[in-house]
Design brief:
87 residues; single chain; 8 strands; alpha+beta; two-stranded antiparallel sheet; two-stranded antiparallel ribbon; 2 helices
């Protein structure tokens, strides 16, 4: 399944709709992290994502990544997309 220019992710057919969907073993966040790593873009998890496994009781509402350098590409599908926010 195409997720960006020259980027593809493993897909499976949805049993209900018959449409392709991202592989169920990996969520979109893990796929976006791998794509950024393979592109050589430096990134780090957001504050909320890094605090939750460390014992925080706040569950992150959105999956967020902090991109540490200039990035101007689209990564996503019809349902999910990686958006950059200026900090």
């Amino acid at each position: 399944m195409k997720i960006g220019y020259g980027l593809y992710a493993k897909a499976a057919l949805n049993r209900i709709t018959g449409m392709p969907m991202l592989d169920s073993d990996m969520g979109f966040l893990a796929i976006a992290q791998e794509a950024l790593t393979r592109l050589g873009i430096k990134w780090e998890p957001s504050k909320s994502l890094s605090q939750y496994p460390a014992g925080s009781t706040q569950i992150p509402a959105d999956d967020e990544l902090v991109i540490c350098e200039r990035f101007n590409r689209q990564i996503g599908t019809e349902t999910y997309s990686l958006k950059t926010v200026k900090v």
